[in-house]
């Protein structure tokens, strides 16, 4: 129902974030521009990038943008509406079209926001056919598709995490159980601290346990780094394969390439870039500056009304008509020299348009490639930033069970640690005894060296042994390094020799193929020049023939219009001739009935009737003038009589009311 649909749209527009405060009358009285602006506001609520002012946008660009966005949102027009009518309604702001779109958007707003968000990353960029075969572009596009697939997987994980509901009862039970275990562990740790503090070597044992834990953490980190390095190695091997494939393709494409061809390609690229920098870009900059100046001038001017716009449109139509007339007069006054010049001008304009179109396509391709590269870099950065694991419901339960198992292992290890601490105390006591014995023996040895006159001999001997052992280790490492380098050089020489042996027959086969490629390329250039010249001549002749056909069509249309006009005039003249012949016949005829049918007689009778009416009206006017004073007096008398009667009526009514009051004041009494 249309009324229910409009009520729902108004209700949604009056809510946040629109706050329009419409009612049925004000919303129904909106113009097409306001409806298009409301549609754009709703679009911008789905995707903020579409926020724009409809009055400042080009209508064609605006319609294309809206159609593309509706295609992204998977909107389908009603079956009763034709697609051409739908597009026209979207251009002109047709109410039925806009209402249906708004109703569809408001019923699906959260879903459409999600779809618009995903479309930014999942709508693939279409490659033009001329660059689709390029290996580098193909490689980048494959990476782009891989990034899209990774985004799909990550988004799927995110949705699963949102939809997977953890049981709060189980989580609370697990938390309570873990808190109980934590309290038990705290109590056990306190008891162990009290036991350990009484041990003589508690600091040394704690240091050993700390080093053990650090070494285990280091081992876990090294294992993780090992996995990462393996993955990096796999990616590097894949990249090497891809680069080798690109190298093969480049080698195949460079067969027969000579310095001259390379220089020629460079010159062509330099010409293209110089054309872009010197010709095309300055023109575009000047056009943009002019456009900005026009916009500034329009902004500085007061707002245009509908009448101003109509005047401007009329002026545009007049100027177009003058241009059309000028072209027609120029075509009528044909000059053979001007025809040749126009032919050459057309050829030059065609070439210039082709050149500009090619430059625009090249510039668009470069911009698109830069955008794809930036998107690829952003995707890589997002992928690196989002690295990590997400615990789901089942995984969280497994993690809790694993934590319980680790707590049991911790209890066993704690018992083993107590035994080790006991053994460590015994060993530390043994070390203390041995250190005391060593100190006593060192003191005795020093006394003996002093008695023999060789004090400090034992310390010097220990120092020399340390230096000799360090030198031996350095010599061994140096020899190993030199040996490894020599082995590596030998391997590289063998690989180079093998590659040369493999490439020698291939190079011999390539030499005749290079010459053949040069011949074919020269023949191709000649054929291409011939084709371009023929195509240019055909295009110029086609354009000239089209102009002639258009001029002939216009002449035919004018001749047909003149033909139909003359036919209508001839028919009108024939009818008038017939009426004149009948009038003459009736006028000449001696029959009185025929004369009465003639137009002259009819007009005479009508004139006589009007004259009689005029006489009667004059007599009536005369009578009115003669009796005017008498009638005015009589009228005055009647009005006075009417006033007198009204006065008597009022007096009578007043007497009646007074008599009623007096009658109502009397009362009846009974005398006993």
TrEMBL record:
<keyword id="KW-0963">Cytoplasm</keyword>
<keyword id="KW-0206">Cytoskeleton</keyword>
<dbReference type="GO" id="GO:0060271">
    <property type="term" value="P:cilium assembly"/>
</dbReference>
<feature type="coiled-coil region">
    <location>
        <begin position="141"/>
        <end position="253"/>
    </location>
</feature>
<dbReference type="GO" id="GO:0042073">
    <property type="term" value="P:intraciliary transport"/>
</dbReference>
<dbReference type="GO" id="GO:0015631">
    <property type="term" value="F:tubulin binding"/>
</dbReference>
<keyword id="KW-0597">Phosphoprotein</keyword>
<keyword id="KW-0175">Coiled coil</keyword>
<dbReference type="GO" id="GO:0030154">
    <property type="term" value="P:cell differentiation"/>
</dbReference>
<dbReference type="InterPro" id="IPR029600">
    <property type="entry name" value="IFT81"/>
</dbReference>
<protein>
    <recommendedName>
        <fullName>Intraflagellar transport protein 81 homolog</fullName>
    </recommendedName>
</protein>
<feature type="domain" description="IFT81 calponin homology">
    <location>
        <begin position="4"/>
        <end position="126"/>
    </location>
</feature>
<feature type="coiled-coil region">
    <location>
        <begin position="355"/>
        <end position="451"/>
    </location>
</feature>
<comment type="similarity">
    <text>Belongs to the IFT81 family.</text>
</comment>
<dbReference type="GO" id="GO:0036064">
    <property type="term" value="C:ciliary basal body"/>
</dbReference>
<feature type="coiled-coil region">
    <location>
        <begin position="535"/>
        <end position="627"/>
    </location>
</feature>
<dbReference type="InterPro" id="IPR041146">
    <property type="entry name" value="IFT81_CH"/>
</dbReference>
<dbReference type="InterPro" id="IPR043016">
    <property type="entry name" value="IFT81_N_sf"/>
</dbReference>
<keyword id="KW-0221">Differentiation</keyword>
<keyword id="KW-0007">Acetylation</keyword>
<keyword id="KW-0970">Cilium biogenesis/degradation</keyword>
<dbReference type="Pfam" id="PF18383">
    <property type="entry name" value="IFT81_CH"/>
</dbReference>
<comment type="function">
    <text>Component of the intraflagellar transport (IFT) complex B: together with IFT74, forms a tubulin-binding module that specifically mediates transport of tubulin within the cilium. Binds tubulin via its CH (calponin-homology)-like region. Required for ciliogenesis. Required for proper regulation of SHH signaling. Plays an important role during spermatogenesis by modulating the assembly and elongation of the sperm flagella.</text>
</comment>
<dbReference type="GO" id="GO:0030992">
    <property type="term" value="C:intraciliary transport particle B"/>
</dbReference>
<keyword id="KW-0969">Cilium</keyword>
<keyword id="KW-0744">Spermatogenesis</keyword>
<keyword id="KW-0282">Flagellum</keyword>
<keyword id="KW-0966">Cell projection</keyword>
<dbReference type="GO" id="GO:0007283">
    <property type="term" value="P:spermatogenesis"/>
</dbReference>
